[in-house]
Amino acid sequence: MAKSILAVNAGSSSVKVTFYTFTNPPRAIADAQVSGITAPPATFKYQRGEFKQKEQPQENLATPQDAFKYILQRCFSDPELSEVASDNDLAYICHRVVHGGDNFEEIEINDDTLHRLEALEDLAPLHNFSALEIIRLCKKELPSVASITFFDSAFHQTMPLHVKTYPINQQIAKANGLRKYGFHGISYSFILRSVAQFLGKPAEKTNLIVMHIGSGASICAIKEGKSIDTSMGLTPLAGLPGATRSGDIDPSLVFHYTNEAGKLSPASTKDMHLSMAEEILNKKSGWKALTGTTDFSQIAVENPPSEAHKLAFDILVDRILGYIGNYYVKLGGEVDALVFAGGIGEKSSLLRRILAEKCSSLGGVEEDQTVKDISKGGGKGPRTLICQTNEQFEMAYHIVCSRS
Ligand SMILES: Nc1ncnc2c1ncn2[C@@H]1O[C@H](COP(=O)(O)OP(=O)(O)O)[C@@H](O)[C@H]1O
Ligand SMILES: CC(=O)OP(=O)(O)O
Ligand SMILES: [Mg+2]
Questions:
Q1: Which atom of ligand 2 lies at the shortest distance from residue 12's CA?
Q2: Is a pLDDT exceeding 90 seen at residue 376?
Q3: Which atom of ligand 1 is the closest one to the Cα of 342?
Q4: Is 3.30.200.20 the CATH classification of the domain at 201-387?
Q5: pTM above 0.90, yes or no
């Protein structure tokens, strides 16, 4: 039997895993995810063909590594999933790694490349560490299978220099790699291809404003198939707020957070070496700080349970609008579509409706297909689309295209 591809997407609140056939295009054999890692109890969802299952595991799945181990054990022990019962059935494992630094192409993991990626761990504190833990686990538990990493940041390498550059001392910036990188690029790459196909245009002639709104949220301006700007920066903290992230703030806020702030010693968690400020802004801010929940489905409701929930919703709408206006102007008003994606972008019709209403000045802005048209406005202005993004597919597709 032909071997399969295992694609792993460790997000900040979820681990999504899909097994694919080694065919062009890859076909999903089974799909498993653990979501709500930051809002326990976590939920396990499993799909194999027509068979669907959803449950709350007894085990405490508090980290992406726990979630991955659990998923693997569930899939390998499913008697109906005969295609993948052990590492012998796998040709490749693809891993989404959020921060790739100056690596733009996929990388096959060996001791040397793993060390190089370990050097980037601090730059995506909610992501790279977990992805690398999963890679280390695969190396140990599935040693015969090659692990290939794909980088979220690679898609944004086309951003112009004046967009990528922070106006700080350039010697220090260059020596330390301090620039805008941008993330969610595997998702943007999938969305660009799917939406261009849907619109019947070549990707290299397609202009989009894409919103990937999940536990981490970002927006990307795509001109003629290339990223020209995106809201995340050196790290995924910049730009829009998220489940536990502040998004953009005045950087000086850090020095005024407490009277003691200047005196704090760095709080290094055992494995991640985060400074206290980084930890607060990455893990203790966003929806969690405002409302106590990281579950946006409790916030995006017609009658919010508290003023704080309403405020959280209004903040997200306001920040997204700021970027849409910015990118609409940068694209010279030539936008084929505004695209909603990511857990919140795909599922919250309320967020989409409010944003569409507020974007009506752009000329008319408004489920189980990959791309769905929800435009209103009689053909004036950009169309509004929902795209069910699929980072696992994107990685498997690249493997099939480049290695078969
Ligand atoms: N119906 C819904 N309405 C609003 N938000 C939702 C809904 N369903 C899921 N979400 C939110 O989507 C987010 C997860 O998005 P996802 O893109 O899967 O996250 P990750 O960052 O882990 O990849 C969570 O914050 C969850 O609360
Ligand atoms: C980059 C990022 O924030 O990813 P996610 O939304 O999957 O957490
Ligand atoms: Mg994600």
A1: 8
A2: no
A3: 17
A4: no
A5: yes
Q: Is the CB of 216 under 6 A from ligand 1?
A: yes
CB of 207 sitting under 6 A from ligand 1: no
At 126, list the tokens: 């909610």
Rg for the chain, CA atoms, rounded: 21
Please state the atom number of ligand 2 nearest to the C-alpha of residue 391: 7
Cβ distance 33 to 14 under 8 Å?
A: yes
Domains 4-156 and 201-387 share a fold: yes
CA 206, CA 371: separation in Å to the nearest integer? 15
Q: Which residues contact 253 (CB under 8 A, 6 or more apart)?
A: none
Which protein residue has the closest C-alpha to ligand 1 atom 12?
Answer: 343
Percentage of the chain exceeding pLDDT 70: 92
Question: What is the chain's mean pLDDT, rounded?
Answer: 91
Interval between CA 396 and ligand 3 midpoint (Å): 16
| Calpha distance 83→80 (Å, rounded) | 9
**For the chain, what are the domain ranges?**
4-156, 201-387
The Cβ of residue 333 has, within 10 Å, a number of other Cβ atoms equal to 12
Residue of 152, 248, 250, 368 marked catalytic: 152
Class in CATH terms, 4-156: alpha beta
Say if residue 305 is preceded by a cis peptide, omega within 30 of 0: no
Is the CB of 10 within 6 Å of ligand 1?
no
